[in-house]
Amino acid sequence: MADADHSTLCHLHLVTINLFLYLVCHSSLASNVHGGGFSVELIRRNSPNSPFYNYNKAPSRSLCRRFRRLMEPSNPNTPQSEVRRDYDGEHLMKLSIGTPPVDIYGVADTGSTLIWTQCEPCLDCYKQKNPKFDPRKSSTYRSLTCDGAATRGVLAKETIIMKSTSGEPVSVKNILIGCGHNNTGETFLENQMGVVGLGTGNMSFISQIGPGLGGKRFSYCLVPPHANPTATSKMSFGNGSEVLGEGVVSTPLISTLDKTAYHVTIAGMSVGDKFVPFNSSETNAVSKGNTILDSGTPNTSYHNSFMIPWLQS
């Protein structure tokens, strides 16, 4: 945390992974973090700390738009607001990929299992402000074959460098990344250059670096939007990432058939004094692991079978 006074405002999340890691190549960390841990800053897209921050836009405009939406007349039984993806809530992680290094700002995403970025030559790509990574100019880039796979990109191993919150660079060699050469759709905005996958899969960032950090675990502290604009969020990896102290509450991660995402069990929600159970539409009972934790999706969404009775309450 850049500002200790904001530590009480943070939303803390701890994820500990115990997985068997089997990869075609093994990543290696710089000696200064072996057996230990490190932290990096997370950058909110609309934060002044973001390289994509638009200084010509008055900060009040976003607040005014939200205020107008709140003041729009609506039927209390029928939500009228347009449902759209809230990109303001996404957090970016800065990585430097290749030799010489190229800066990449990827969405920190616990719902993805691969580090991925757009690469040159890009046949069909979404608009991107910063230059794309060109593997032809990197001396450490090595492509990997995927027998029988149909893909619009390349699985490769590269060197990644991150700046820790202590100021020391953290270098990771031979880490698996996805290099996309044909990417379409509306998944990203022009200030998002890819994804830093933090899921439970074998090729995710945390699964690859975990063995060199004393364990595949990480935690992150997100500064609320109303906090000081100069305050920064933080993500910690390996030893020292544990969230400890008075007031810490934990919930178990549930193992499901989905081996790539983090699942928790939500029993229900309270509206005033009324408790609405989060029952499955099939069994009419609370199912274990009924909710996915996905840092790449800022909006929270639930099935209509729960939302309708919840709204009626």
Task: Describe the protein's topology.
Elements: E1 11-17, E2 28-29, E3 37-44, H1 60-71, E4 91-97, E5 102-109, E6 115-118, E7 142-144, E8 153-163, E9 169-180, E10 194-197, H2 205-209, E11 216-222, E12 233-238, E13 262-264, E14 268-271, E15 274-277, E16 291-293, H3 304-312
Parallel strand pairs: 5-10, 6-9
Antiparallel strand pairs: 1-11, 2-9, 3-4, 3-12, 4-5, 4-8, 6-10, 7-8, 8-9, 11-12, 13-16, 14-15
Strand order of the largest sheet: 4-5-10-6-9-8
Spans of at least 5 consecutive residues with low confidence: 1-25, 58-87, 147-151
CATH class division of the largest domain: Mainly Beta
Computed Rg: 21 Å
Largest sheet: 6 strands, mixed, barrel
How many H/I helical runs?
3
The SSE string, one letter per element, is EEEHEEEEEEEHEEEEEEH
Percentage of residues in DSSP E strands: 25-35%
The name of the CATH architecture of the largest domain is Beta Barrel
> What is the global morphology?
globular
Question: For the residues shown, what is the average pLDDT?
Answer: 74
Structural class by secondary-structure content: mainly beta
Within CATH, the superfamily of the largest domain carries the name Acid Proteases
CATH topology name of the largest domain: Cathepsin D, subunit A, domain 1
What is the share of helical residues?
under 10%
Protein name: Aspartic proteinase CDR1-like
Organism: Prunus yedoensis var. nudiflora
Keywords: Hydrolase, Protease, Signal
Domain Peptidase A1: 91-313
